[in-house]
């Protein structure tokens, strides 16, 4: 697999290189080796991308939804045909096991292109009859959208932002995370191959300042960020300068509540999916696992048994189910939290160490006897660290689950249907799960409340965030005035 891209950027329907920009080494997390190099966008490259997207707006918006949808669906088809190569590249970019990337990342991206490609023709206004007068509404594009991605799902994020944006008739300049720059270029290449006119979807590389320079440009009408809460606050503030539309998909410290009557095998599966999938680098993870006291030891015992099934190793090996952290920096951050958990008195049940191998690997780690005030229970770790907390009653569990500045996701395992829906109704979170965790079908809205974000990605809800309604009042008779 060639990991060195044709060039660093994809602008106006072609690859563009400018090596005068700051060098961004692409490091394979499984070995620590540099596997490619891209260059941060210079102001000239930023200008070239914004000018291309701005120039493409008129033609793309003038297409019918059916015509735009056809191109998005064609792009989805190409992604599915190339799923293997796109999955291998995603593994090189992120270190996530091929066992995961081959069924999640490009697939989820193709799903979003297919879904919004199908919706595009149905994005319409309405007619409101008012006696002899009437109002009709037009659902119009916002214009030029900027997408800014995080490093944990580079293909998916590039598509989850691009698909609804393009379906609504907008153009996009997308900047992937500097940590995982490779995959978004393929998304841009495939959209162009599928028939998107030059300039409709552009990808440029760069660190935070490049992202910042995109937001404040007068041609930009919307910004959609996936990233940390601190970055979200900066981006939101910068977008406010131009009263720009925003979507904020930020961090979390989500609760997973497991009651005595839960099916333990399923609850352990939920805890594993909500803490160790993608080596724990998932924003919506249920990293505060509240276990009712009656089943705490049974849960911990079964969890430890199931963790014996972890096969840590070369993520390109289809047999491997647990990969490295995305970077040495992230590995160090997570190790710092593990040390903090031990120092503050949490019980280390398993994991916590780097295995003796190259790359940024860390064992899946479980803490028990965690209390709400501990750092590992309050702060987002973004790594394979599960905190298990005990609780007695439903009321106590819900209150503690909600006692956080975040509000991204929340999950509950119980056989009591009334209690399950009571908990879902009570959770202060945008995305909830009952007897499951982290399912993310494109048909369902995804996003957070409180500090975890603004807006929703996927589902019909995304159309609201990538289009605007114009109301037109039509008077059919004469118009009187007081003078
Ligand atoms: N809610 C969600 O769907 C997700 C949220 N995240 C969050 O993202 C974090 C991990 O990803 P990172 O890439 O480390 O996040 P990050 O916040 O460091 O960077 C995210 C993106 O923002 C860009 N950026 C940084 N400063 C900027 C600025 N001032 N203006 C414009 N752009 C700027 C970065 O270059 C990067 O592309 C975690 O906190 C995680 O919770 C990650 C994935 C999904
Ligand atoms: C549940 C998986 C959704 C992916 C959200 C993220 O980008 O972390």
Estimated helix fraction: 25-40%
CATH class annotation of the largest domain: Alpha Beta
Sheet having the most strands: 7 strands, mixed
In total, the number of strands is 20
Q: What percent of residues are in strands? A: 15-25%
EC number: 1.2.1.8
Keywords: Metal-binding, NAD, Oxidation, Oxidoreductase, Potassium
GO molecular function: betaine-aldehyde dehydrogenase (NAD+) activity; metal ion binding
Active site: 249
SSE arrangement:
Layout: E1 9-11, E2 14-16, E3 23-28, E4 33-39, H1 43-62, H2 65-81, H3 83-94, H4 98-101, H5 105-119, E5 127-130, E6 133-141, E7 144-148, H6 154-167, E8 171-175, H7 183-193, E9 201-203, H8 208-215, E10 222-226, H9 229-241, E11 245-249, E12 255-258, H10 264-273, E13 288-292, H11 296-306, H12 328-343, E14 347-350, E15 365-368, H13 375-378, E16 385-391, H14 394-402, E17 409-413, H15 417-426, E18 431-434, E19 453-454, H16 461-465, E20 467-474
Helix pairs in contact: 2-5, 2-7, 5-6, 6-7, 10-11
Task: Describe the 3D structure.
- With 483 residues, the chain is α/β, with parallel strands linked by helices.
- The model has no long low-confidence stretch (mean pLDDT 98).
- The strands form five sheets. A seven-stranded mixed sheet has the order 14-15-16-13-12-17-18, with helices on both faces. A six-stranded mixed sheet has the order 9-8-7-10-11-19, with helices on both faces. A three-stranded antiparallel sheet has the order 5-6-20.
- The chain is built from 16 helices and 20 strands.
- It folds into two domains: 9-251 and 464-470, Aldehyde Dehydrogenase, Chain A, domain 1 (3-Layer(aba) Sandwich); 255-434, Aldehyde Dehydrogenase, Chain A, domain 2 (3-Layer(aba) Sandwich), CATH 3.40.309.
- It binds 1,4-dihydronicotinamide adenine dinucleotide and hexanoic acid (6NA).
- Hexanoic acid binds next to loops.
- GO terms for molecular function: betaine-aldehyde dehydrogenase (NAD+) activity; metal ion binding.
């Amino acid at each position: 697999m060639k990991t060195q891209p044709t060039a660093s950027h994809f602008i106006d329907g072609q690859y563009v290189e400018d090596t005068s920009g700051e060098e961004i080494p692409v490091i394979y997390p499984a070995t620590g080796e540099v596997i490619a190099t891209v260059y941060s966008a210079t102001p000239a490259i930023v200008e070239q991308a914004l000018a291309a997207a701005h120039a493409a707006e008129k033609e793309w918006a003038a297409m019918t939804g059916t015509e735009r949808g056809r191109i998005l669906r064609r792009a989805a088809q190409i992604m599915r045909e190339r799923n293997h190569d796109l999955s291998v590249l995603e593994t090189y970019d992120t270190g996530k096991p091929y066992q995961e990337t081959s069924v999640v990342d490009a697939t989820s991206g193709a799903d979003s292109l297919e879904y919004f490609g199908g919706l595009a023709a149905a994005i319409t206004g309405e007619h409101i009859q008012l006696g002899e007068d009437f109002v009709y509404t037009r659902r119009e594009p916002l214009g030029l959208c900027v997408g800014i991605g995080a490093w944990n799902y580079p293909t998916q994020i590039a598509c989850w932002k691009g698909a609804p944006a393009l379906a609504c008739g907008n153009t996009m300049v997308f900047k992937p995370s500097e940590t995982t720059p490779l995959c978004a270029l393929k998304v841009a290449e495939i959209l162009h191959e599928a028939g998107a006119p030059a300039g409709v979807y552009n990808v440029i590389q760069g660190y935070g300042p490049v992202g910042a320079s995109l937001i404040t440009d007068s041609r930009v009408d919307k910004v959609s960020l996936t990233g940390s809460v601190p970055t979200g606050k900066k981006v939101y503030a910068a977008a406010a300068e131009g009263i720009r539309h925003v979507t904020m998909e930020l961090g979390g410290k989500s609760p997973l509540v497991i009651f005595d009557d839960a099916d333990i095998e399923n609850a352990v599966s939920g805890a594993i999916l909500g803490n160790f999938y993608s080596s724990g680098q998932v924003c919506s993870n249920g990293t505060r696992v509240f276990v009712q006291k009656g089943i705490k030891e049974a849960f911990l015992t079964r969890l430890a048994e199931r963790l014996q099934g972890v096969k840590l190793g070369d993520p390109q090996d289809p047999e491997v189910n647990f990969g490295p952290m995305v970077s040495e920096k992230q590995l160090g951050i997570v190790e710092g939290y593990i040390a903090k958990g031990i120092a503050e008195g949490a019980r280390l049940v398993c994991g916590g160490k780097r295995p003796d191998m190259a790359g940024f690997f860390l064992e899946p780690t479980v803490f028990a006897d965690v209390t709400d005030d501990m750092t590992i229970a309050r702060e987002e770790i973004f790594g394979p660290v599960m905190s298990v907390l005990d609780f007695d009653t439903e009321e106590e569990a819900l209150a503690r689950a909600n006692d956080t500045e975040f509000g991204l996701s929340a999950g509950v395992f119980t056989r009591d249907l009334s209690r399950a829906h009571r908990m879902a109704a009570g959770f202060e979170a945008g995305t909830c799960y009952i007897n499951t965790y982290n399912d993310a079908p494109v048909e369902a809205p995804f996003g957070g409340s409180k500090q975890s974000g603004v807006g929703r990605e996927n589902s019909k809800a995304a159309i609201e965030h990538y289009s605007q309604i114009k109301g037109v009042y039509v008077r059919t008779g004469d118009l009187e005035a007081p003078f």
